[in-house]
# Entry
Amino acid sequence: MIESPRSNCPINLTLEILGDKWTLLIIRDMMFGDRRHFRELLLNSEEHIASNILADRLRRLVEQGLIVKANDPSHKQKSIYSLTEKCIQLVPVLAHLAGWGSQHMPVTEEFRIRGRQLADAGPEGWNRLMEHLRQTHLEE
Amino acid sequence: MIESPRSNCPINLTLEILGDKWTLLIIRDMMFGDRRHFRELLLNSEEHIASNILADRLRRLVEQGLIVKANDPSHKQKSIYSLTEKCIQLVPVLAHLAGWGSQHMPVTEEFRIRGRQLADAGPEGWNRLMEHLRQTHLEE
# Structure
């Protein structure tokens, strides 16, 4: 999956696939923003991701089995991206990042509230969200 | 703290300071490996971090208030790095990354056990670890 990993530590291996400034943002937008087409991910990106970076990271996420690319049944010419179970299980990681950022980074008030809500939802709330994502993304 | 952040989303702001392949590994080694000197962090690095990258990331972590650099009272010529409260609060993030990696990445058996232990410790276990880190790192 990763050629010549630097070590077998699970934190290292996870960072080898998620440890850059863009990958988790794409996952965030698919999870919480329900964006599943390339153009949505590109044009609605609050961080103004560049099209070549988006294409590269989507390709890598597909390779690593974190997302799946398929023809969109409702738009013949479009591809639709879906989260896999493996990726859906990152919800608690993103929730913790949001909680930590809400507390320690200079976020705006609106974002602070949303970040805290996500963090404070706790395992029960994250499970509900994961169940919802499974229903939306894992169905055939 | 960050000049011209890409957005005010707490996940984005967090990734702007932690979203690279090395920063969280240095924090991991300080938290779980009790490494607090430059040479230890360099020479014991399982991922063979390069000395210039280590120096750069330590400098940034100090700038961002995640670690503190001081003269080591027991080794006159050495600097010692300490975690700040803000950084100690990343324990649950690292625990979740370890848990996810243990489950989904091709880790060795030994690492799988250690990763699961950290993840399964849960909020109570993480609080104990955080308390221990506070006692070791935050004292004057």
Q: What stands out?
A: Chain A has a mean pLDDT of 93. The interface with chain B takes residues 1, 6-17, 19-22, 24-25, 28, 46-48, 86, 89-90, 92-94, 96-108, 111-112, 115 of chain A (CB under 8 Å). The longest strand of chain A covers residues 67-71. The CA atoms of residues 102 and 112 of chain A lie 5 Å apart.
